[in-house]
Hints:
WSC domain-containing protein 2-like; Sulfotransferase_dom; repeat; Rossmann fold; alpha+beta; transmembrane helix; sulfotransferase activity; single chain
Amino acid sequence: MRVAREPIMARPLLKIHRYFRCKPVHFFSFILLYLTAGSLVFLHSGFSSDTSTTGASRSVRDPLISEGGGGAGGGSSTSDGLGLLGRVFKETRRAPQRFGPPWMKKNRAQDVPEWAGRGVDHHTRSHGAKGKTTKGMDDGREQTVHAETSSSKYIGCYVDDTQKRALRGVSFFDYKKMTVFRCQDNCAERGYLYAGLEFGAECYCGHKIQAPNVSESECNMECKGEKSNLCGGPKRLSIYRLELSQESARRYGSAIFKGCFKRPDNVTLALPASAVIKNMSVDKCVDMCTEKEFSLAALAGEKCHCGFPTPLFTLHDHEDEELCLQRCAGEDFESCGNIDFFVVYQTQVQDNRCLDRRFLPSRTSGTVALASFPGAGNTWARHLIELATGWELLSYYFDGSLYNKGFKGERDHWRSGRTICIKTHESGRKEIEAFDASILMIRNPYKALMAEFNRKYGGHIGFASQAHWRGTEWPEFVKNYAPWWASHTLDWLKYGKKVQVVHFEDLKRDLFSRLKGMIIFLGLEVSEDRLLCVEGQKDGNFKRSGLRKLEYDPYTAEMRATIDGLIRTVDTALRKRNLSGVPEDYRPR
């Protein structure tokens, strides 16, 4: 009988099998080495994909900001810093992944820019619609500019010296995804009048252009994040003039420009410290008032006055800036005012007149709610009321992050009676009827929904990731929360015993008088000095930076149709109670 022979290919496998069966230790060593090698391959592929994945896949912070900083060819951050913004940035490493809509093409250029010319075709690229009002372009697609930016106009190509910048405000760099829109938005967010782009990737902000203009052909480098637009060149800036909203704060170094104001009747009483300064400049006056620990620096020609906002000098009556146009003796490009009209800046000095806060010494009999839909400015309004009155406000909830930020009322039970007002987002008859009166905050639902979505996925001053906005979370959130925005207001109007309606937008627009009305509603005495102090510190610790605002509209046509219908419902309910309807800027968005 003939014995079947083993197939030739099976012999090596059989030998390996017999070997490991006889020596199991070798078998387990082999398995361990195999798994280790597989893990290394997996990790390597993961790191490699980090450099090519789009911004939509994860959340990464934008670069921080520097004052004056160095750009292409060297330079360093100025000694002034950014002061009130408290952020310093200088590009020293490879730029991290940034957010960006999917139509922004990936630029695989190296972080160190090329200095060689590229032979740019000026017929196929633009300066973001040169000489026209722009709405922000990304790869040829028009986008709606944020309300704070409004619009801009390209004005020309200018020289930029690393030792003496043409625009001397804040700056930031992104050597992969810089766009005209992004630079404009960041500068407008900080209240600057001009935004300039250099070397395809660098953004500079300023109030004045302190350099000569040159031929347009010298601004010939395409933007790193959009090939359809030009972003300056080597030591050349493509500069835009921005149209700022009234709420934007213009800055000079670490100081905030407040405006041009008429000389107060009793200047010695209104601004108690003053001095004549040789070769006057904004820096010298601001430095003097900062050293003397005053929050205001007022330039009047060769004289510098220092003080605080008071009923004698409220900073409410702005004058035309042309009345203050007088060149500083020690500075060619800034105005120093004159004997009749002062140029005023807010220094870094903190006004301490409204910082003391305490609990009520005895229990109150009534309860007043500070009610709002989440994301409608409740925490901000609470901050304002605490500063204006000196009393701690309690909360219907306990939020440890708010407690750690200074809201000590988070620790007390809301029925303890040790407060003048209680923060709540509750709705429903039972919860509302537990309060004797209420201040009802209402905000544009388009803004409130986005603010609450950011808080839910990013914290009180953080941001939701791009993946959350692009994923299923955002549509589901709008579906569930938009009806709540309307029902929250309708419930408080229906079941509230005594309701004062305050629109978030009105409070931002006219803080002094609206906050004064809220304090009177609470039955408290108004201190105008405290209210003026609040105006200088209105943002507190809970204002989100504009660095990571979405560069596209997240609302679909179907979402807008639903929300517009809810706005009309709330507007009708308000008018039926003989109240003013929703503000005009709710519609159209």
